[in-house]
Inverse folding.
């Protein structure tokens, strides 16, 4: 189990002394932050109280609470509390596991968020880049109106076949078109066919391809289209300018392209949960 704290990550077996030393360093930062914030609201808030609130023991305690197990338990509780249990989605995950697909689907809470965002957008046409086994596809297709249509692109023939079975089992086959093959080729073909613009675009494929997919997404969009790029925080590694990870480099370039594109307004939301620490980019095509 990896433990994540305010002062970074502690690998299994990391010494207590090392963690305590990190907490001492972090105490100084927390101390200054606490004094500054509290004096903003209460000018008589003294440094002594700030020291009490930012003791090393307290920092370590809080840091120890921030781990994958806690996030997963909270995810499971919230999914149950909001009645997100779903036979078709559970069958989808079971079929994916049986076919030995990688367990990198969005979580139930994230899938519900995707559907809600598509409904809030009033999406009638949705484009998904990266189908995997169809878990997010099902969540998005359910958000469509009766005349809605979803196009999802998947490189792997095996993944596409598993997804088709999952989507058909959920009685959504009539709304979902799966295009199997390299996404860039499929995107170019859609653009050449001058298909009707998409209202909602979800990018969740190989991260090295994100910078390539963005221009095509813009070609296939309209003013007001919502574009989401998943998994862009990479456990915080996105902030490392010297990262050797090609996936991190891909999302860094993707974010740079979004920032430089005057047609887009965007933000990034960091997330924690049973899928760990990550986040997604949310953008809107300006009118």
């Amino acid at each position: 189990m990896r433990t994540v704290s305010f002062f970074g990550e502690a690998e299994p077996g990391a010494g207590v002394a090392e963690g305590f030393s990190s907490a001492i360093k972090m105490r100084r930062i927390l101390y200054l932050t606490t004094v500054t914030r509290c004096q903003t609201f209460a000018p008589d808030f003294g440094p002594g109280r700030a020291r009490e609130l930012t003791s090393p023991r307290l920092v370590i305690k809080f840091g120890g609470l921030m781990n994958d197990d806690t996030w997963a338990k909270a995810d499971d509780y919230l999914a149950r509390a909001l009645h997100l249990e779903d036979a078709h989605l559970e069958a989808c995950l079971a079929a994916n596991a049986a076919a030995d697909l990688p367990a990198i689907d969005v979580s139930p809470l994230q899938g519900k968020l995707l559907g809600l965002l598509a409904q809030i957008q009033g999406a009638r046409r949705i484009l998904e880049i990266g189908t995997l086994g169809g878990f997010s596809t099902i969540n998005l297709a359910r958000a469509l109106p009766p005349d809605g249509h979803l196009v999802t692109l998947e490189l792997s023939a095996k993944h596409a076949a598993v997804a088709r079975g999952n989507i058909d089992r959920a009685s959504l086959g009539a709304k979902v078109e799966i295009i199997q093959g390299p996404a860039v080729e499929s995107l170019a073909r859609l653009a050449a066919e001058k298909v009707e613009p998409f209202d909602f675009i979800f990018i969740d494929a190989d991260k090295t391809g994100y910078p390539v997919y963005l221009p095509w997404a813009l070609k296939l969009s309209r003013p007001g289209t919502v574009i989401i790029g998943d998994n862009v925080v990479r456990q915080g590694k996105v902030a490392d300018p010297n990262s050797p990870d090609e996936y991190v480099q891909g999302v860094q370039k993707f974010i740079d392209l979004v920032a430089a594109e005057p047609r887009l307004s965007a933000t990034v939301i960091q997330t924690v949960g049973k899928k760990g620490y990550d986040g997604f980019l949310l953008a809107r095509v300006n009118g």
In short: Strands lie at 3-5, 8-10, 125-129, 149-154, 176-180, 200-203, 226-230, 264-273, 276-285. The chain has two domains: 3-66, 87-285. The longest helix spans residues 16-41. Residues 7 and 26 are 6 Å apart (CA to CA).
